[in-house]
Write a structure and sequence with these properties.
Layout lengths: L1 E9 L4 E10 L4 E5 L6 H8 L7 E5 L6 E4 L11 H6 L3 H19 L6 H19 L5 H11 L16 H14 L4 E5 L7 H13 L3 E5 L3 H7 L2 E6 L2 E5 L3 H36 L6 H13 L28 E10 L2 E11 L4 E6 L5 H9 L5 E6 L5 E4 L13 H6 L10 H7 L16 H13 L5 E5 L7 H13 L3 E5 L3 H4 L5 E6 L2 E6 L2 H12 L47 H40 L7 H32 L4
Parallel strand pairs: 3-7, 3-8, 5-6, 6-7, 12-16, 12-17, 14-15, 15-16
Antiparallel strand pairs: 1-2, 1-4, 8-9, 10-11, 10-13, 17-18
Helix pairs in contact: 3-4, 5-6, 9-10, 18-19
Length: 667
């Protein structure tokens, strides 16, 4: 579809990347990765034609369309949300106007036998057919589906875009690009302003509806769920890995180990050559050999090693005084803005040492409750902050509180205590302030850089209650790993407002869901919460039984829903069992039918597990053969089989439990 040939970009002496060659094919889902400053955003701008390379070319077929979502863009504020989204169909609307004009002309003319009239009818027919193929009037429904998927309420559609924050207006731009259905989608950090539900909707859209996608994202779960290919910009080169991000990480580690071995061998070779030259430089009998060694040394191309992964760096919060047993208690807390109730009757208790997440759509009150806890805004009800609480708070505006006259290094050096001061440079490097960046003054930093600096400062202050409001928005994957490990090792209490599932996974043990003016508690981690939500939103595992029981002892066919992530399984009948204690004939028949239904489901789950495990054993034998050990297709299939088995096993356990409950009603 698109061909990138010998692309080179130079800023200063060292090229950003050189001689890059790759092809973007239809249905490719590409993650563009690399450290900050490697040139990911520059690559996207070059592909879409907004920036010119130093050399090389991007070949785009004439009929190929490209949609590009940058991180920052100039937005218009003179229309409503719906009208702005309609701009995606500007071509359709212009075509509709031409068709209407031709239709009016046909109705007014009476020269039915003239050549011009016949040509007009033919053109009208052709254009009308094209209009119908483009979706005709159906684009309004598509606009609504896309805007709702990205988190807008239908009541928002007629509101002026000027009433929305920058993040929401970015969603409108994303909606416009998705509605255009370009052949190639270029997305630069598309999840920065989305909540979990909108991210999941976008994942599904990109996986099923988009043609080709190239994206830059620091949301590991998002790119793993969408992409099937990874392009890495490293050491000025573009390396193509035909696997998703998680598998790329493994292959990259192996590649780096090979680079290190090759680098060490090359250094030994260089040292030996230099030693020979120094030893025999002034011996006339060895002059020819010395010149040969000098030429050999000049021809050696130095081996570069990929940038060091700083995620292994470990940070630890300084010790703080022990807090009370219950750092936060909310009792019937309510917050109103005028006539709008953000939330009502919030009752929650957070115990010392708990790590909890606040999740939900944007605007449902997550940050508002955090501000209530901090005492920044008034509310009604009782909210108690426990005894001896020292709060460390990271808010969206936290970066504005930094001293602009200090350098990055001075800002951190002023709060660092003890041995941690010896690691300040390492810590700054882990959060993308390596080298000369640590000597910049705060006043010249961008908003994202200030946020990262405020996060480092917070990590070095002694607190026992940590409140983080969207802490990962401006962090790359390595920085998020450093932060996550520091929080996991933190012995105090943590409240995290975040939409980053990978960051929350393994970090929190309780989730508070904000929505509809209520706050609901969910025990377990983020994926436990998402699984529960998926079950609530998915169709039931089996279709609801008819009101009249099946006749003649025959049962229906049931299927395990593939929409909830499971393999489709056809269910067959099995005999009814036993009688029941008391009750009417209809009640007994209903219980018997329930037992029969769940027996069928359990039996078919067992068959499916057996089938998947049999295939997995086959792959075990195949992968033992060295010839197939590195076959990524087989390795991927093996991994997917493990996931499927786990899902079906979980389903089997649930349905077996339900079956036992119904059987307990039998004599």
């Amino acid at each position: 579809m698109l061909s990138i040939d010998n692309l080179t970009v130079e800023f200063g002496v060292k090229p950003l990347f050189r001689n890059a060659n790759f092809v973007i094919n239809d249905r490719d889902r590409i993650a563009l990765v690399g450290k900050n400053g490697a040139g990911k955003s520059t690559m996207l701008k070059i592909i879409c034609g907004q920036q010119q390379p130093t050399s090389g070319s991007v070949s785009v077929p004439n009929d190929t369309t490209i949609g590009y979502l940058p991180q920052v863009m100039v937005l218009q504020d003179d229309t409503t949300v719906r009208e702005e989204a309609r701009k995606a169909f500007a071509g359709n609307l212009q075509l509709k106007e031409r068709i209407d004009r031709m239709q009016n002309e046909i109705a007014e003319r009476t020269d039915y036998d003239s050549e011009s009239y016949m040509a007009l009818v033919e053109k009208f027919t052709r254009e009308h057919e094209r209009y119908m193929m483009l979706g005709a009037e159906g684009y309004e429904a598509e606009i609504e589906r896309t805007l709702v998927g990205l988190g807008f309420q239908r009541t928002d559609f007629e509101r002026p875009t000027s009433e929305f924050s920058g993040g929401w207006r970015m969603r409108i731009e994303l909606a416009k690009i998705l509605l255009q259905r370009p052949d190639v989608l270029l997305l630069d950090e598309p999840t920065n302003h989305l909540d979990i539900e909108s991210i999941q909707w976008l994942e599904n859209f990109l996986s099923t509806s988009a043609k080709a996608v190239v994206m830059v994202s620091h949301d590991r779960a998002f790119i793993n769920n969408v992409t099937n290919r990874t392009l890495e910009i490293s050491c000025g080169n573009v390396i193509d890995y035909k696997v998703k991000y998680n598998e790329y990480v493994v292959l990259r580690k192996e590649r780096r180990e090979q680079q290190i071995r090759a680098y060490e061998n090359q250094q030994k070779e260089i040292a030996d050559i230099k030693a020979f030259i120094e030893r025999f430089r002034y011996q006339a009998t060895k002059a020819v050999q010395v010149q040969q060694r000098i030429k050999q040394l000049e021809k050696i191309v130095p081996i570069e090693i990929d940038e060091v992964d700083t995620s292994a760096l470990r940070l630890k919060f300084p010790p703080a005084e022990r807090s009370g047993d219950y750092p936060v208690i909310c009792d019937e807390v309510r917050k109103d803005y005028g006539s709008h109730t953000v939330f009502d009757r919030v009752n929650l208790t957070i115990k010392r040492g708990e790590k909890v997440a606040f999740v939900g759509k944007n605007g449902e009150g997550k940050s508002t409750l955090v501000k209530c806890i901090m005492g920044e805004i008034p509310f009604t009800g009782n909210l108690k902050v426990g005894h001896n609480i020292q709060i460390g708070y990271f808010a969206q505006n936290q970066a504005q509180l930094l001293d602009e006259e200090l350098t990055v290094f001075q800002t951190i050096d002023n709060v660092a205590k003890g041995e941690i001061r010896l690691k300040i440079r390492d810590i700054l490097g882990a959060f993308m302030f390596g080298g000369e960046a640590s000597d910049k003054k705060v006043k010249v930093l961008s908003g994202g850089e200030r946020s990262r600096l405020a996060m480092i400062k917070l990590l070095l202050e002694p607190v026992n209650l940590l409140i983080l409001d969207e802490p990962t928005n401006h962090l790359d994957m390595n920085s998020k790993d450093v932060l996550k490990e520091a929080i996991k090792a933190f012995t105090g209490t943590v409240i995290v407002v975040s939409h980053d599932r990978e960051f929350l996974d393994g970090l929190v043990t309780k989730v508070y869901e904000f929505g509809g003016g209520k706050v609901k508690e969910h025990l377990g981690g983020i994926y436990d919460f998402l699984y529960t939500k998926e079950k609530e939103q998915c169709p039931p595992l089996t279709p609801g039984p008819p009101s009249v029981p099946p006749q003649g002892g025959k049962g229906e066919d049931y299927k395990v829903s593939s929409e909830c992530g499971l393999q489709k399984v056809t269910i067959h009948s099995s005999p009814l069992v036993g009688g029941v204690r008391g009750g009417s004939y209809e009640a007994r028949k209903e219980i018997q039918r329930k037992i029969s239904k769940y027996e069928r489901i359990v039996a078919d789950c067992e068959k499916e597990i057996s089938r998947l495990e049999a295939r997995q054993k086959e792959l075990d034998q195949i992968l033992l053969d060295p010839a197939h050990a590195s076959d990524m297709k087989l390795v991927t299939e093996y991994t997917e089989l493990s996931d499927q088995i786990a899902k079906v096993m979980e389903q089997w356990e649930e349905q077996a439990s339900v079956l036992e409950e119904w059987k307990s009603k039998i004599n």
